[in-house]
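Hi there. Long-time user, first ticket. I'm pasting a complex I've been working with (about 563 residues overall). I'd like to know whether the download I got is complete or cut off, because the file seemed smaller than I expected. Thanks.
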Amino acid sequence: MVEPILKTANLYKRFGALPVAEDVSLDILPSEIHALIGPNGAGKTSLLKLIAGFLIPDAGQVFFESADITGYPVTVRARLGMARTSQLTSIFRDASALENMVLAYEASSGHPLKYFGRITEPAVDAAMAALHEVGLAEHAEATASALSHGEQRRLELAMALVTSPLVLVLDEPLAGTSPDETYAITRLLKTLKSRCAILLIEHDMDAVFSIADRISVMVAGKIIASGPPEMIKANTDVQAAYLGREQEAEHA
Amino acid sequence: MKRGMLRYIVAALTFWGLAAVPFLAEALGQSYLVNFATRIMIFALAAVTLDFILGVGGLVSLGHAIFIGIGAYTVALFALYQVTELLVILPIAIAAGALFALLTGSLALRTRGINFIMITLAFAQMLYFGTTSFSALGGDDGFSLPMRSSLLGHRVLDDSLGLFWTSFAFLALSYLLFQTLALSSFGRALRALKQNSEKMESLGTDRWSLQLRAYVISGAVCAIAGVLLANLSGFISPSSIAWQRSGDLIIMSVVGGQGTIIGAILGAVGFLGLEEYLSHYMEFWRLVLGPIAIIIALLLNSPRWSWRRNG
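Hi, the file is complete. Here it is re-exported in full:
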């Protein structure tokens, strides 16, 4: 049995009277793509924030490589090898794409403490390699804010990649991307799973069912089903709670 | 790259211009110009240290003049014991500046934005009121230095040219230090924290410790300006370290183009030059200075005119 790289154990979190996580136990195996789906407001983004350390759970634990990281701050989790992209693109808008990449590379390798000297060659090489992977190499010198929405999302993904993460936590990586970009990103994610585990939230069901090794379905703060795509498709609870509703909407 | 070139040209012109002052003063027979330029360079040094945390790091400190005060009062304290050696005073002033920055910064940086401004102001006010009631150093009335500092026993600062070139050297060194820091990965990370600190934390960078380092370096170097200022004016009083002085430093560092470092020196030249010029003609010279500062700040910091981004 493979040890999960990332695991949550009985997580609870409430915002006032609103439960956003209720007894959430989830595990992510190395080199798997694990998709988290569910209707809006189910608590998916909050769960990612609990995992990344932006929220502290009321009860329960988060494990990373079998170590309890529940009380660890965001920065420490990042340095352990957890990279994340956010729902609303979060980049350094005034800097060039390459500078964004160098910042990400240096932040993950402890470089900000170097007080003297310019950008090093390994930093630029790593930055360009990751930009190339997401197809942004020719935009390296462009200011980030001048890139298109889809390019900015790919830049944020590249920034996560250049930190050589063990786990990639992606909040809707395909939101607002063009069909071509969606295709390119899903193809990229498939190749990435040989390097790191991926946990992602996504609303594009075609993409989710084509790339995910396992899918967990979250409704009202609870995981109601977890398993391979075929199993999720066949699960009647899931159909009732989520997929069914969408199919009804499509048929209507 | 073009912007980088422009910055070096501006910096070279600025320092050549400052270096020409003593010769100009002699040619014109206006010897007061040397002391005036020394005063400008001392405030420029303080403004450079502020520009590093404000312009590069995004930390608005409304108590930065207190570091000038720490340096100046270090000179005064040693004068009480007849110690005037710069090689003793300077390291202790720098250490005191660093220590004060470390203690206050570690608390103030738990907050950000307006709270940070208020906490730096509060700590500065505490020290300010401390000096007003410090009777051994004159309290409210201030303290007259019996003599200027010496270097290895030589009284090089007694002569206004000696003080001029000493201030020039410290300004040049500080400029080089902060310019280098601003272009290093440390400086890059500081700028990034200013833009998007949540992202930097997601990437593994601890905001608090990074900004604290910047604050400590800035405060330590700023204390040097205080040592020089005490020597220049021969007199130290609480009013010269009041929070209004911190406001002046902010204007100097902002009007020159935030985060450019060299801009802070130009800002000091412009601010103190205007102050000198306008105060000859009117009592309410700040009424004129204020709008000028606002217009320059708006122009220089608008994207079209900005030359602060680094290549």
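A couple of notes from our side: Residues 2-28 of chain B form the longest helix (27 residues). Chain B touches chain A at residues 180-181, 183-186, 188-189, 191-192, 195-196, 198-206, 210, 309 (CB under 8 Å).
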